[in-house]
Design goal:
heterodimer, A: mainly alpha, B: alpha/beta, Rossmann fold, Alpha-Beta Plaits, 6-stranded mixed beta sheet, 4-stranded antiparallel beta sheet, 12 helices, elongated
């Protein structure tokens, strides 16, 4: 057991050192939420309600941060064959992929709290349900990371990972109810919203900040748990099929 | 005692059978060479032995364990050095080794001591914090081998260890293979440098078209390939009639070739040197050099696989 923990920690530490704590990635975590906040400010042509846009900025920071990082790093390691080294080590595939995804999940969680930090200087954050907010952030980070893993397993090239990520991310942005309420979407598109993990994470996040939600909290938590398990095990299945052929 | 034993090992990719029910074993402590042309099933076999590919059929025993069901346990007892250096570009030599050690559950003190020991053993201890990407090709190769033996495996799989590196690094790697062998590590070696295989391997298996066509000791393989006995003489003088005179005088000699002052004799029977020395002496011909020409492992390879080694080398180096 101790051996497995050491291997898990070794992979996590290496990924942190090698990818997540690199200056370009740290700056990404700062620039991205600032850009989003400015974008909303320019669009609204008036003083922006920081609190109302906070859930959206947080959710997108996590979504873009985790999916980009994980899908690119895994695809890159596959190309350079260093991922083979991990597959050939005496640790189970489940533990290996948990170790690989933990770094991205932590990166996502940190990314989510950068907008909160900025917001704290600009507006009053009292009344936020911090427990619920943390739960939502953790779930969004997990599901987004596992989505990145699913993408990484499905492609061969780094550029394919980026393209494929955008294929999921941009529709998610508009369909998850963060900027356009799901109820205002055409009836034909609405079911798509409910098929996205971000819809449930964003709803939880919005509830924790504005106390408004359109989906039952229990349903959201359960849906997020199901999405997390499904994406993880689907990815593991694909790895077993595609990489250990 | 067999440390690796494969029976009827098969790998199919759809309708294509890449490995066709092969049987072989590797003795504990030996250097086993695994040779074959590109596309023969070499890499697929190694991938099945190391757990990167699942066999479609057959059985596999490695280090006394089921090499298919217990592959994760097996992986803790084997070391793998791929044909391309696959460590992390941005990590230093020390960090790369320490990371690889952590994958095998080694404690901090233990892995740091082992990393330092290996860096010194491979003359890489002066690389400091230099990232792996700044290493020369030879240094990268050495560090990749060091990473493969960080956990002191019982069996080491070495894929093309000396390809594309400088002479000095290649020499160091050959010495290391010899010292690991002397220390009791079983080595499963693939190489297209036949001279490496001849020098380092105890036994060699040839795989061609997904079948193992021959497994034997180097000496036995060469003996099998020796269809005829060949003796070459370098002389101070060689009259035009010398070839005919030799064929008439020695009925065992089936054919002869004469070029300048050199003559080559072929026979189905072993040739004795002294009668020829007396023959040349009686004609006042001085012999500068006389030698028995033995087939090399390269001749065996060409015979077994049917392909020219030069072509194989060109293909392999072209891939790098």
């Amino acid at each position: 057991m101790m051996d497995k923990l050491l291997a898990y920690w070794g992979i996590l530490k290496k990924d942190m050192q090698n990818y997540y704590l690199k200056p370009p990635n740290i700056s990404w975590g700062i620039i991205f939420p600032v850009s989003w906040t400015l974008m909303f400010f320019i669009r609204s042509e008036q003083a922006v309600d920081i609190r109302s846009i906070l859930p959206g900025v947080m959710a997108l920071s996590v979504l873009f941060g985790t999916t980009s990082m994980l899908s690119v790093t895994i695809t890159f390691e596959r190309k350079s064959r260093s991922f083979e080294r991990l597959l050939l080590s005496p640790i189970s595939l489940n533990l290996l992929m948990l170790a690989k995804t933990t770094g991205a999940i932590v990166f996502g969680i940190i990314n989510a709290f950068i907008p909160v930090l900025f917001a704290a200087f600009m507006t009053d954050l009292s009344g936020i349900h911090w427990g619920m907010l943390s739960l939502a952030v953790v779930f969004i980070a997990i599901t987004s990371t596992f989505l990145g893993l699913f993408i990484a397993v499905s492609v061969n090239e780094v550029f394919e990972a980026q393209t494929f990520s955008n294929f999921f991310r941009f529709p998610m942005m508009f369909l998850c109810g963060l900027f356009l309420p799901i109820e205002s979407l055409p009836a034909l598109i609405r079911p798509l919203s409910y098929a996205l993990s971000l819809t449930y994470g964003a709803d939880l996040l919005r509830f924790s900040i504005t106390m408004e939600s359109s989906i039952s909290l229990v349903v959201s938590v359960m849906a997020l748990a199901v999405f997390s398990s499904l994406l993880f095990f689907l990815s593991i299945h694909n790895i077993g099929k595609r990489w250990i052929y | 005692m067999h440390i690796i034993e494969a029976h009827n090992l098969t790998k199919n990719f759809g309708d294509f059978q890449a490995v066709k029910g092969i049987d072989f074993f590797v003795e504990r402590g030996e250097v086993f060479g695994f040779l074959g042309p590109n596309g023969a099933g070499k890499t697929t076999t190694i991938n099945m032995l190391t757990g990167l590919a699942k066999p479609s059929g057959g059985t596999l025993s490695i280090a006394g364990m089921d090499g298919i069901k217990d592959i994760k346990k097996v992986q803790g007892r084997i070391g793998i050095v791929p044909d391309e250096s696959n460590l992390y570009d941005d990590l230093s030599g020390f960090d790369n080794l320490a990371f690889c050690a952590s994958l095998y559950g080694m404690r901090k003190k233990e892995r740091e001591a082992r990393a330092r020991e290996l860096l010194a053993q491979f003359s890489l201890d002066d690389t400091g914090d230099r990232p792996f990407k700044a290493f020369s090709k030879g240094m990268k190769r050495k560090l990749t081998i060091a990473a493969g033996i960080i956990h002191e495996p019982e069996i080491l799989f070495l894929d093309e260890p000396t390809t594309g590196i400088d002479v000095e690094s290649a020499r160091q790697i050959r010495q290391l293979i010899a010292s690991l062998h002397a220390g009791g590590t079983t080595i499963f070696l693939t190489t297209h440098y036949i001279e490496d295989a001849e020098r380092l391997c105890d036994r060699i298996g040839f795989i061609v078209g997904g079948n193992i066509v021959n497994v034997s000791t180097v000496r036995e393989l060469i003996r099998e390939a020796q269809k005829e006995h060949v003796m070459q003489f370098s002389l101070n003088d060689a009259p035009n009639t010398l070839k005919e005179d030799l064929l008439n005088a020695f009925t065992d000699v089936s054919s002869a070739e004469q070029a300048d002052h050199n003559i080559t004799l072929h026979s189905k029977e072993p040739l004795e040197l002294m009668p020829f020395m007396e023959f040349f002496g009686s004609r006042q011909i001085k012999v500068h050099e006389a030698r028995l020409v033995k087939p090399s492992l390269e001749d065996v390879f060409v015979k077994v696989t049917g392909i020219e080694l030069a072509r194989l080398k060109k293909e392999k180096e072209g891939k790098k």
